Amino acid sequence: MKIFIPKETYTNELRVPLIPPDVEKFVKKGAEIEIETGTGITCNFSDNLYEKAGGKIITDRRAGFSSADMVLRLRKPVPEEVHLLKKNSIHVSYLDPFNERKLVEALAAQSVSALCIEMIPRTTLAQSMDALSSQASLGGYVAVILAAERLNKIFPMMMTPAGTIQPARVFIIGAGVAGLQAIATAKRLGARVEAFDTRPVVAEQVKSLGARFVEADLGETGQTKDGYAKELTPEQIQKQRDAMAKVCVQSDVIITTAQVFGRKAPVIVTKEMITGMKAGSLIVDMAVEGGGNVEGSVRGEEVIVNGVRIVGLENLPAHVAVHASQMYSANLTSLVEHFWNKETKTFDLNLDDEIIKGCLVTHSNEIRSEVLKKHYQNA
Questions:
Q1: Is residue 307 within 8 Å of residue 279, measured between CB atoms?
Q2: Active-site residue, selected from the candidate residues 61, 101, 122, 199
Q3: Looking at 89, 110, 130, 281, which residue is catalytic?
Q4: Tally of CA atoms within 13 A in the half-sphere of 80 that contains its CB
Q5: Pairing relation of β-strands 56-58 and 158-160?
């Protein structure tokens, strides 16, 4: 089976899909691996390292797509490259399928079996394949580091001959994977940390990391079967904002992480809340690529609103590209190894498997995902 690893071409994408040690694992299983020249350069993986791992370096990107039985990449393909894919081949990457209907339809028309990274089920069996979680964890870490670098205060308390410096107050909104890592990182840096989440079930996790869980009576809330927070009603959103506004006023740093898969991120921090914050405080909007949790945040930029710096930088995991690539590569490797047929030395696309059912978006000239088909019909 021939597997192609194309070089990522998305602007400012520094991560790579597969690192040399994992290429070596595939080669030992009998796979033929082709890597586009320069693929690993952003993470200091030279073409020579990939060749030593058993991969073949190629310069013809188009030929790589057209001859591969499977394509493993990070970002979604650009429309112009879909028709280059070999019919009945398998394509694995992020796809943003709820917002990329034309791309999904093009993949179906090309008879490509597209596995969507975002839709891998959040089950114990698939945990090692869950790239959303691995990248979100790193994103949470980076958000705190960016905040610490930009804040005009230090994070920890210090007792000095010149007096005592009080610790910075950090408020994390959303205690999913990214939020929990942000809490842990801020605590390690010595900050006083508070956190909020619509799911009361995560309160113990927040407290176990040494943070205070902000209580708010929102009525019935909860999480989906995949562990995501359920979307709130307008009334619940207002109650949430009222409870958080009191904490925002006292905070030096706010980090928002709330996203609803397949939908625009909810606005959590309003202009009114920002107006009440201290001059010099800072907000990191981790949901800016999904529409943003913060009114006034600008995708890819840092702006000042009423003396408050709002950081809307994209692709936070790419700030630690080496480890982000290591984790993403491990996620892909786990996925392929789980379905690898040792006898035929091919990827076994088992349509009855629960993991495949969850993430297979297109197959045999049709859209297979019932969730997506329903979404497109209602759009």
A1: yes
A2: 122
A3: 130
A4: 3
A5: unpaired
Inter-residue contact 255 to 173 (CB < 8 Å)? yes
- Residue 341 backbone class (left: φ over 0; alpha: ψ -120 to 50; beta: rest): beta
* CA pseudo-torsion sign 358, 359, 365, 370: positive
> Catalytic annotation on 75?
no
State yes or no: is 10 an active-site residue: no
DSSP 27-67: HHTT-EEEEETTTTGGGT--HHHHHHTT-EEES-HHHHHHH
Specify whether 122 is catalytic. Answer: yes
* Three-state secondary structure call for residue 329: helix
Residue 134's nearest CA partner among 188, 167, 90, 178 is: 178
Residue-wise pLDDT for 81-97, tens only, equals 999 999 999 999 999 99
pTM above 0.90, yes or no: yes
Is residue 96 annotated as a catalytic residue, yes or no? no
Q: Is 242 exposed, middle or buried (0-12, 13-18, 19+ CB in 10 A)?
A: exposed
Catalytic-role residue among 110, 133, 240, 369: 133
The SS3 assignment for 85 reads: coil
Cβ neighbours, 10 Å, residue 205: 18
CB atoms within 10 A of CB 131: 24
62 is known as an active-site residue? no
The confidence score (pLDDT) of residue 47 equals: 98
Q: Are strands 360-363 and 253-256 parallel, antiparallel or unpaired?
A: unpaired
pLDDT band at 174 (very low <50, low <70, confident <90, very high): very high
For residue 217, what pLDDT is reported?
Answer: 73
Instruction: Return the closest-CA partner of residue 322 out of 129, 45, 127.
Output: 45
Please say whether the beta carbons of 332 and 21 come within 8 A. Answer: no
Identify the structural domains of the chain with CATH numbers, from first to last. 2-129+321-378 (3.40.50.720), 138-314 (3.40.50.720)
